[in-house]
Amino acid sequence: MAHGTALEPPQGAGGPTARVPAPWEMGPLALHGHDVDGVNRCVHCGLCLASCPTFSLLGTEMDSPRGRIVLIKSLAEGRIELSDSTRAHLDLCLGCRACETVCPSGVPYGQLIEAARAEIERRHPGGPVRRLFRWLNFAVLLPHPRLLGLAATGLRCYQVSGLQRVLRASGLLRLLPGPLAAWEPLLPRLPPAAARAPLPEVTHAEGQRRARVGLLTGCIQQVAFGTQNRATARVLARNGAEVLAPRAQSCCGALHAHAGEDGLARDLARRTIEAFEAAGVDQVIANTSGCGAHMKSYGMLLASDPAWRARAARFAARVRDVSEFLCQEPLRGPLQPVARTVTYHDPCHVIHGQKIRKEPRALLAQIPGLRVVELSEADWCCGSAGTYNLTQPEMAQRLQERKIAHIRATGAEAVVTANPGCIIQIAQGLQATGAPTRVMHIVELLDEAYR
User: Fold this and answer.
1) pLDDT band for position 365 (50/70/90)?
2) Over 90: is that where the pLDDT of 104 sits?
3) How far apart are CA 394 and CA 400, in angstroms?
4) pTM
5) What is the pLDDT of residue 31?
6) pLDDT at 124 over 60
7) What Rg, from alpha-carbon coordinates, does the chain have?
8) Sequence-separated (6 or more) residues with CB below 8 Å from residue 225
9) How much is the average pLDDT of 397-412?
10) For residue 214, how far is the Cα from the chain centroid?
11) How many angstroms separate the CA atoms of 415 and 400, rounded?
12) How do residues 318-343 score in pLDDT, each as one tens digit?
């Protein structure tokens, strides 16, 4: 699939002869409508190699950011086919964007890998079972809160009825086809229906109001971690924010973009923008790292849509991670002592996607009695990476084991982070090793100090 400028071949005595256009004669590079001209910023210096988890474990060039950039550029220029080998190297990328943090040339790697995955889905959508599975999840459940809520009710019944315990003890789960047996342990323990219920549309600020903010309640976040959403609203209100949770919102489209479902990702971005524009908020707060990073990229996602380009850019400029917002001012007191030793794991899309490092640690430092110990490789991916632990379970497990070993070495009573995928992945890994370490969202710890 070449994306170059059509050139008229020169005429010679022997008839027309074709020539390959030089790089400076090529038109804008794109894959499936995504701009991938950013590949040309890569100078192949190799500084990204030491920061790439898959390269660290495998040591192969094509499983490094530099190697994958060569593949993406070659695909866009039509110099290689999308072979099984090329797909395997691209699919094995976590999308953690650690390479972006160390890149001296500012290569927009996250944008490039999402473009490549959209192209993979366009050319190789898979068989009927895979297409049905993706349709049910990406088109039916995630964008529709009521249907997702019904599915969550069914999962809750499976868990509390004892059926899950019986099936796990019997070994029958090993008979599930494909990767389903590896997926079942990753199911989050769902809270009761009251915790999964929608937040109040308005949570009033306490004391002097400093802002009117919208809270993205999310899709998986709302049904699996609704208690964290409630803690977020309480902590924001204690710090002078009037919190609005628009009923019209649904999934922000982050999982869709990461998985190559770019059309649905754009549709959900438009819906999200409309919901928060109608709410009339000053800023939009995300307590899930992948969602926050994705919404901050709406301007780029919808840049080719003249009707939405400016609206998307304005919206993206108002998105804030919850720690980013809370650190704009010192926390309002009083906070009660929390006598506990914790460590902090940086979610990839907070530290690499949004370049937020010091703010979460500054918030933890304001909690009286809390002891924070530094985690080795705190900014390395835990293996969750959106749906990566479902699609690449072997590599995800290797990264999980590495992360768990570092957490246990700290001796901390709890590991604090800020993303539902990380929480699920780390909790499952700790449980598998018998470690009693608790996994908490940072807003839960702040909420505990306030309460």
Assistant:
1) very high
2) yes
3) 10
4) 0.88
5) 81
6) yes
7) 23
8) 188, 191, 420, 423, 441
9) 96
10) 20
11) 14
12) 999 999 999 999 999 899 999 999 99
Token pair belonging to 131: 């297409």
- Higher-scoring residue by pLDDT: 197, 34: 197
Token pair 């070659």 is at which residue? 74
Token pair listed for 325:
């917002």
Q: Which residue has the higher pLDDT, 6 or 159?
A: 159
Structure tokens at 217: 């309640």
Give all domains of the chain, ordered by start, each with its CATH number. 24-123 (1.10.1060.10), 128-191 (no CATH), 194-326 (3.40.50), 340-450 (3.40.50)
